[in-house]
Amino acid sequence: MYHAGQGTFKWRPYAPDLSPQLADFIDRLMHHKADDRPKDTGEILQTLARIKSKLYPPPLPPPPVSPPPPPAVQPVPPTVSRNQLAGSIPTVSRNQLAGSIPTVSSNQLAPNRRSFIALASFTAIAAVAGASAWEKLRSGDSGEPQPVAIEPTPEPSSRETPEPSSRETPEPKNKSNTLSTFSFQVVTVNDRGQEIDSERRSAEFFTEDLGNGVMLEMVFIPGGSFMMGSPDGEGRDSERPQHRVTVPDFFMSRYQVTQAQWQAIMGNSPSYFKGENLPVEKVSWYDVKKFCEKLSQKTDRAYRLPSEAEWEYACRAGTTTPFHFGETITSDLANYRGTSTYAKEPKGKYREKTTPVGSFPPNAFGLYDMHGNVWEWCEDTWHGNYQGAPTDGSARVASNSNNNRRLARGCSWDGYPVNCRGASRYGRAPDLRSYALLTSFFTMSNPYTVLI
């Protein structure tokens, strides 16, 4: 059950019926780092109580029984005032409706609101003691890559899962009022690029209809804490000091924004490489901000760019290695300048163009193309290091931010592997348009705000 290469226990296949929330917490109880385990019994019980409240929500109250109307002398329908009619309708809170969608007011549609994040990707963890406490609570490739196939979902598992968040799962205001589930395969490689692990995961998502059969899929990303930046011996000074950041729950686009999605919202097609399922590129930071604004107006949700903390958290997906795939990447796992190497892996393929979104395996959150293909804009202005950086996941924006360089993450089809690392960061002119740059992912955080 113990995976020596990763320092984790592979127990989940022996308990397939366990809920993902409880399974993630058991992983945290068994974490090899003491600082990442719960501090005391009180924290264990509080976390289990939150899990219980999500898995076993209170039942809906029965509707009130209206008194019978008085006998009518004439067969004339009784007159009912608007206030009387409103009083006959039961009030149900959002916590009582699993899958209900909050209404977003027009004031909440501003792209810079922080509660719902939509990232634009354009060219955009005492296991016995814990289980006992839970029971008590419960009782009271050779050619061009092909898109990854989506199969029926089994129980998700995790490696180095981020700390559970105390916030409720965001509830998107979509037409179906429900979240669907998709499954996917997550692979891990060693420094030679050899696969050392593969496991099934699943994630929840909802679909935004952009019209004419064009859809935007938003994946739920559970909030938590992670170490942002690079440790000593990896990366550049601009990626330090490494620091802990806590990010709330949010939703994020499953894929980089496609040319079809851009066309549906903006009515134009600026990309150098043409294809409806290719990521959009040659879009500036200002272009992407306008896209967020128009998407917000169309969907009645406030979409915006992510902070770079949100982007890195989403990219790492609970891992601490340079890439979410492990110690290195290969051209079988991502689209980049594969003729260059990062560690001990063999040289691979340099495709010299973008590839269709979803062509390579996703990370443990179910997000695709987080390494390579096209750079992704973030909300932040460029700072040379992390001194004084926020620790709450918010964007770091200079007060004199007009035309300041903006953050770009993820690298591109033209980039070297060192620049594809999850911690790698660059500042770009906000009016820059390039066929290697820049796309974005969309995200949305708590029930009242959307991020793009």
How would you briefly describe this protein structure?
The chain has 452 residues and is of the alpha+beta class. It has helices at 20-29, 41-55, 82-87, 127-139, 259-266, 285-299, 308-316; strands spanning 2-3, 8-9, 180-189, 195-211, 214-221, 224-228, 243-247, 250-253, 376-381, 406-409, 426-428, 443-444.
Keywords, please?
globular, single chain, paralog of FGE (formylglycine-generating enzyme), 17% helix, 452 residues, alpha+beta
List the helices and strands and how they pair.
Blueprint: E1 2-3, E2 8-9, H1 20-29, H2 41-55, H3 82-87, H4 127-139, E3 180-189, E4 195-211, E5 214-221, E6 224-228, E7 243-247, E8 250-253, H5 259-266, H6 285-299, H7 308-316, E9 376-381, E10 406-409, E11 426-428, E12 443-444
Antiparallel strand pairs: 1-2, 3-4, 4-5, 5-8, 6-7, 8-12, 9-10, 10-11
Can you offer a commentary on this structure?
This protein has 452 residues and is an alpha+beta fold. It has one domain: paralog of FGE (formylglycine-generating enzyme). The protein is 17% helix and 15% strand. The protein has 7 helices and 12 strands. The strands form 4 sheets. Strands 3-4-5-8-12 form a 5-stranded antiparallel beta sheet, with helices on one face. The protein has a 3-stranded antiparallel beta sheet with strand order 9-10-11. It is globular. Residues 73-176 and 445-452 have low confidence and may be disordered.
What number of structural domains do the residues give? Answer: 1
Helix content: 10-25%
Shape: globular
The major pleated sheet works out as: 5 strands, antiparallel
* Low-pLDDT runs: 73-176, 445-452
Q: Can you count the beta strands?
A: 12
- SS strand fraction: 15-25%
What is the second-level CATH architecture? Alpha-Beta Complex
SSE class: alpha+beta
The CATH superfamily bears the name paralog of FGE (formylglycine-generating enzyme)
Euclidean distance between termini CA atoms: 39 Å
* CATH domain topology: paralog of FGE (formylglycine-generating enzyme)
The side-by-side strand order for the widest beta sheet comes to 3-4-5-8-12
What sequence of helices (H) and strands (E) makes up the elements?
A: EEHHHHEEEEEEHHHEEEE
Radius of gyration: 24 Å
Average residue pLDDT: 76
CATH top level assignment: Alpha Beta
- How many helices? The count is 7
